[in-house]
Design brief:
Distance between the termini: 34 Å
Low-confidence stretches: 1-10, 278-282
Radius of gyration: 19 Å
Number of strands: 10
Strand order of the largest sheet: 3-2-1-4-5-10-7
Strand content: 15-25%
Order of helices and strands: HEHEEEHEEHHEEHHEE
Largest sheet: 7 strands, mixed
Structural class: alpha/beta
Mean pLDDT: 91
Shape: globular
């Protein structure tokens, strides 16, 4: 496509402050368990913001590229989708046609300015210390009148479970503590509307969704279990859990009866103002 941004060469992932590691042996499966929960909602919100044929889109922290592919199908051959991640091992096979892949650390490297109709990031800003700077860069990357859509978690519902299970509470608290001691903010989702205002965006709207999930005797609950497995060595080293806690956690999610609510996924959108915008109350364009 004309004007497409070339992929950065090289195979080694960039050094970043991200807590979770794409090189972990089951990271693609873990990311896939998240896309199964949230992709449909992300696409629906994007369509309500106007995503259509010919749009230019940017997906930051693009992961496995599931949203990239959905966007590429929606914008068609006259549109373009740029996928950026610090580790593009899952994205590189998608490069071509109306999809471009760039290996880049968004906390350091600049983004194209004044170019995109939609810039999206999911579960990214919560993971970086310079999240306000990254949001400002996203705002600059959209054209005047373009949209920024950010989706991050708020762990306020992560302990909601039926029937009560102390091991779930204990392991979830350990995950939150482990994250909070590093660059990750487990409550960033609730801060998004105020952050959007500070970035100068207008027509701000938000929604928060907590999906209920059930244990499965055969498959367990991969979203939670794979996260705990990846964080497990670190949490054990920090003295936050014991191996018995982790083992009991896995057993819980194979009992076939326990249900829980996941963390809130807070989706917030805002439009970069154009020169002739006048002051007016925020409205919800998706209503």
């Amino acid at each position: 496509m004309n004007g497409r941004t070339p992929a950065i060469t090289g195979t080694e992932p960039l050094r970043t402050s991200y807590v979770l590691d794409n090189a972990w042996h089951a990271e693609r499966e873990r990311l896939g368990s998240i896309t199964e929960l949230y992709d449909a909602g992300t696409l629906e919100l994007s369509k309500r913001l106007g995503l259509t044929t010919g749009w230019r889109c940017l997906d930051l922290g693009a992961g496995t590229g599931s949203i990239v592919e959905l966007y590429a199908d929606r914008v068609g051959p006259t549109g373009e989708v740029l996928a950026i991640d610090a580790d593009t091992r899952f994205l590189d096979p998608l490069d071509g046609g109306n999809i471009s892949v760039r290996r880049s650390d968004v906390t350091v490297d600049p983004l194209p300015a004044d170019h995109f109709d939609l810039v999206h990031a999911r579960l990214l800003l919560e993971s970086v210390r310079t999240r306000d700077d990254v949001l400002q860069a996203m705002t600059t990357a959209v054209r005047p009148g373009g949209w920024v859509l950010v989706e991050d978690l708020d762990w306020s519902t992560a302990s909601v479970i039926d029937p009560p299970a102390e091991v779930h509470q204990r392991v979830v608290r350990a995950c939150e503590t482990f994250f909070s001691n590093r660059s990750y903010d487990p409550y960033y989702g609730r801060k998004l509307p105020r952050a959007f205002q500070a970035a100068g965006l207008v027509d701000i709207g938000t929604q928060a969704v907590s999906i209920q999930v059930q244990s499965d005797p055969e498959h367990g609950l991969r979203t939670w279990e794979l996260l705990v497995d990846q964080l497990g060595p670190g949490m054990l080293a920090d003295g936050l859990v014991t191996q018995a806690d982790i083992d009991a956690f896995h057993q819980l999610w194979h009992d076939g009866t326990t249900v829980c609510f996941g963390p809130l996924l807070v989706s917030t959108w805002g439009r970069r103002p154009v020169l002739d915008d006048v002051a007016r109350p925020d409205r919800d364009p998706t209503g």
